[in-house]
Design brief:
The protein has 19 helices and 22 strands. The radius of gyration is 37 Å and the shape is flat. The protein has 3 domains: 183 residues; 190 residues, Histidine kinase-like ATPase, C-terminal domain (Heat Shock Protein 90), CATH 3.30.565.10; 125 residues, 3-Layer(aba) Sandwich (Rossmann fold), CATH 3.40.50. With 696 residues, it is of the alpha+beta class. Strand 13 and strand 14 form a beta hairpin. The strands form 5 sheets. Strands 3-2-1-6-5-4 form a 6-stranded antiparallel β-sheet, with helices on both faces. It has a 5-stranded mixed β-sheet with strand order 11-13-14-16-15. The chain has a 5-stranded parallel β-sheet with strand order 19-18-20-21-22, sandwiched between helices.
Length: 696
């Protein structure tokens, strides 16, 4: 009997299997069709829900901005020297009509204006039709009473401190004569320059706009909704958001027509999908027919397939677990190392300013160079995932070759000297000067290679030679160390691998140095090569196709203050920093430079301190509890805009200085960034530049 042919002689059990397979094929087709229809329905509903959610968010934000604009409009004439002088009971009504009533209604679009004296008794009222008796606006006074009490409480709390504070304001939604109104209140006060402490309640200005079709028409484009309207009860078949009163209870509902883009898309696509469904049914029937043979073969491999899938799943879970553990370890290591490292580098800079003798200054320089090299190593280890993903970013800039090579090798030359091993650096004259490239990555590569050379060389010499060949810089590091067999060299460039399992115990290290160095050299356009033999030392070479550059600008020594003359008084600096070690370092760096420093522990305290006192500049850590630096900067800028204050310079303090992060700080209103760990010279230069710009 030919394969796949079924006759009357086929066993009954086989026929039942065939029928079952055919039924299964039909079921599969039905599942695909029903599942596809269900998926389309689910997608349409999800799109409609997302559209509704986005519309609600836009409407809520628009209402909030409307209240903010109304409050700003009220304050625009309330915080005014002339209003503070003339706007009181018994004043010239004509002046009030022209400068207050007409301004608020005709220029700013308010429906009602009510002025209260110190005892909250209305003495002036105005509508779009002109001046009215205060009794006509008694409904507004009654509805706004909770907001009035809130302003008075805030005003009393501020006056109790005996300081000159800006106007106290409040905003909200109230119901007046059965209709919802947007209301904003502000105490009348003098402008900042003429503001004096007061002990009695100030005159209070109340403005309102009715939440009707006229207001909705002015906001329709901003809200991007169809047919907005005000409803007294929550509509069942419309999208809506509540207009909450001062006590949080809805006073009305802003409703609009429902949009269903998902359902509309399904309706439009139906004529195109129908032929595809027919083809799917036909394909399903053909597949069911062919299943008779396919399932026979699948049965033979089912057990092996399940075992293989189980092994793959287990391997995947192990890999994901290991990757998560590695990422968590690297994050914890970064957190635990950066804080003490910042302390070491910061205090080294402080000690450099203490007038130590030449030998001690040289020792401090070794500490700083070693700390900076350690920081670069930490950054490279944390960038390992980026290296593997091919997303490592290079920071190319002009640098001095001799300085970069000396900085990278100086700590290891001292270690070699302690082992009676000679460490020589030979730079060809034609290679000296300024080059354009990533000096930090180059220094990291040289530090890794020098570290390995010193570690595995117990006698003899280590020589680093730098030459210029065919327009490229050629680096060659040779040592007289223990060497390694040529067939083992490739293993050294694998991550977390060393020559022998006992190497870590004998010499230390992570097994990442050569792997990271090779990746960095390749990112810079070169290739790292190693030649070695047991007992004959090792030679590592690489070439970098760098371009010549103008000599980099000389950096001011970190122990020297910037050249601009000191101001007539100490600069008042507010520093928001949650880490006490970093607070100590900032104080040690800035107070000797003649600056008056105050520190707070989070963004909220920084905002409160800014409100209480004037500062020449704010240093803002980015990652802080309670309120981070970005949120705090935005809050300060909002307050300056509301009160028409001169902007205070804000400098971000952060180890996160990628381009998109710096852009985020600028969007929040910050004027610059000082990278962590903090360099004293750069910090003081940044402060001087920011305050100079602010002074004009």
């Amino acid at each position: 009997m030919a394969r796949g042919t079924f006759t009357s002689e086929t066993k009954p059990a086989t026929r039942r299997v065939v029928r079952s397979l055919l039924a299964l094929g039909a079921l599969v087709v039905a599942i695909i069709i029903v599942g596809g229809a269900a998926l389309l329905a689910f997608t349409a509903v999800s799109v409609d829900r997302l559209q509704a959610s986005e519309e609600r968010i836009v409407v809520q934000q628009t209402l909030a901005r409307s209240l903010d604009r109304l409050a700003s409009d009220v304050a625009s004439a309330a915080v005014w020297d002339q209003a503070y002088e003339h706007l009181k009971p018994g004043s010239n009504p004509a002046w009030i009509d022209s400068e207050v009533g007409s301004y608020y209604t005709r220029n700013r679009g308010n429906d009602q204006v009510l002025i209260l004296d110190a005892r909250d008794t209305p003495f002036y009222a105005w509508t779009r039709q002109g001046r009215r008796s205060a009794q006509e606006l008694s409904g507004l006074l009654t509805a706004a009473r909770p907001l009035i009490e809130r302003v008075r409480r805030d005003e009393a709390a501020l006056n109790a401190r005996g300081l000159a504070y800006p106007a106290s304001t409040a905003r909200g939604v109230v119901r007046v004569d059965g209709a919802p109104y947007l209301v904003a209140l502000s105490t009348v006060t003098a402008e900042r320059a003429n503001r004096r402490p007061v002990t009695e309640p100030a005159v209070l200005t109340i403005c309102s706009q009715r939440a009707d079709g006229r207001l909705l028409a002015s906001l329709a484009n901003e809200m991007r909704i169809h047919a907005p309207r005000i409803e007294t009860e929550r509509p069942a078949k419309l999208h809506s958001v509540p207009l909450a009163g001062p006590d949080g209870r809805p006073l009305g509902w802003l409703a609009w027509d429902v949009k269903r883009p998902g359902l509309d898309a399904v309706r439009e696509a139906a004529p195109l999908v129908a032929p595809a469904v027919v083809m799917l049914i036909l394909t399903g029937l053909a597949l069911s027919y062919r299943m008779r043979w396919a399932l026979r073969r699948l049965d033979a491999y089912e057990a092996g397939h399940k075992a293989a899938m189980a092994d793959l799943t287990e391997a995947r879970d192990r890999a994901e677990s290991a990757n998560a553990a590695k990422s968590q370890f690297l994050a914890n290591m970064s957190h635990e190392i950066r804080t003490p490292l910042n302390g070491v580098l910061g205090m080294a800079q402080v000690m450099e300013q203490s007038g130590l003798g030449s030998p001690h200054r040289e020792h401090l320089k070794v500490i700083r160079d070693s700390g900076e090299t350690l920081l670069a190593i930490l950054n490279d280890v944390l960038d390992l995932s980026k290296i593997e993903a091919g997303r490592l970013e290079l920071d190319e800039h002009p640098f001095d070759l001799a300085e970069t090579v000396a900085t990278a090798c100086r700590p290891f030359a001292l270690l070699a000297d302690q082992k009676d091993v000679t460490f020589d650096i030979e730079i060809a004259p034609e290679a000296l000067g300024a080059w354009h490239g990533d000096s930090v990555r180059l220094r990291q590569v040289l530090a890794n290679l020098a570290s390995n050379a010193v570690k595995f060389t117990h006698q003899g010499a280590i020589t680093l030679t730098v030459a210029l060949a065919d327009g490229a810089l050629s680096f060659r590091l040779t040592d007289t160390g223990i060497g390694i067999a040529p067939e083992r060299i490739a293993e050294l460039f694998e991550k977390f691998v060393q020559a022998e399992s006992s190497t870590t115990r004998r010499f230390g290290g992570t097994g990442l140095g050569l792997a990271i160095s090779r990746e960095l050299v390749e990112r810079m356009g070169g290739a790292l090569r190693m030649d070695s033999a047991p007992g004959q030392g090792s030679t590592l070479t690489f070439r970098l196709p760098l371009n010549r550059a103008q000599a980099p600008a000389a950096r001011l020594p970190s122990a020297v203050n910037p050249t601009p003359a000191r101001p007539s008084r100490p600069l008042r600096i507010l520093a928001a920093e949650d880490n006490t070690t970093n607070q100590v370092i900032l104080r040690a760096l800035l107070e000797p430079a003649g600056m008056d420093l105050r520190t707070v522990a989070n963004g909220r305290e920084a905002v409160e301190a800014f409100h209480a006192e004037d500062y020449d500049l704010i240093l803002m850590d980015v990652q802080m509890p309670v309120m981070n630096g970005v949120e705090a900067a935005r809050a300060i800028r909002r307050r300056e805009t509301q009160d028409s204050l001169t902007p205070t310079p804000i400098l971000a303090l952060s180890a996160n200085v990628m381009s998109h992060q710096v852009a985020e700080y600028a969007q929040a209103g910050m004027d610059g960034v000082v990278a962590k760990p903090v360099d004293a010279g750069k910090l003081i230069e940044a402060i001087a530049a920011a305050t100079a710009r602010a002074a004009g």
